[in-house]
């Protein structure tokens, strides 16, 4: 059994002499799996991308732990099959000269261990979404490249055009833009029209890249 446990030694209880601790059936006890594993696609969908690297590392560990659990299940099945095969009745000779014997059960195959994935490997499929949420930097605030922020900028632009029409453009600034970010809503203070237009241009240009 010990040789069968070699692949999962890092996942099971061992004694002070580094030997597996086995139960009465000769089976190991799994250590506790990773704690704090999150659903990464769900986090990204909600815009919660803080500590994504940590959660990706936990998911990688979870993938290996789930394999180890499957491996223990395999050992249980292997024990059952070996016990069944060891207790098969002896072949019986029939009057016609034929022999009746019970076929042994085939031995199960161990589960294949998945490749260990890095945090970058796990997050790669979501890179575009993560980059959009991180967005562009404006005056120390990283503004997400989402539709809500685009609509907010459009509303400010319309308000500025209206203020200009009534000759009150100078009184329009400074203006606070409530920007959605990966850390929640943060305020970007735009001091004048030039600053506003530059920010709006940078935003639209960066967002446009995700639709090409």
Provide keyphrases for this structure.
212 residues; mainly alpha; two-stranded antiparallel sheet; 8 helices; 11% strand
Describe what is shown at a glance:
The protein is mainly alpha-helical and 212 residues long.
SSE layout and pairings?
Layout (H helix, E strand, L loop, with lengths): L1 H4 L34 H6 L6 H35 L5 E2 L5 E2 L18 H5 L3 H8 L1 E3 L2 E3 L3 H19 L3 H4 L2 E7 L2 E7 L2 H16 L4
Task: Report on the architecture of this protein.
There is one protein chain. Helix content is 46%, strand content 11%. The chain is mainly α and 212 residues long. The strands form three sheets. Strands 1-2 form a two-stranded antiparallel ribbon. β3 and β4 form a beta hairpin. The longest helix is centred in the first third of the chain and has 35 residues, at 52-86.
- Report the major sheet: 2 strands, antiparallel
**Stretches with pLDDT under 50, minimum 5 residues:** none
Measured as a percent range, the helix fraction is 40-55%
Q: Structural class given helices, strands, pairing?
A: mainly alpha
What spatial order of strands do you see in the largest sheet?
1-2
* Total beta-strand segments: 6
Number of helices: 8
Mean pLDDT: 93
Strand content: 5-15%
Molecular shape: rod-shaped
> From N to C, what is the helix and strand string?
HHHEEHHEEHHEEH
From the alpha carbons, calculate the radius of gyration and give it in angstroms: 31 Å
In whole angstroms, the N-to-C terminal distance is 57 Å
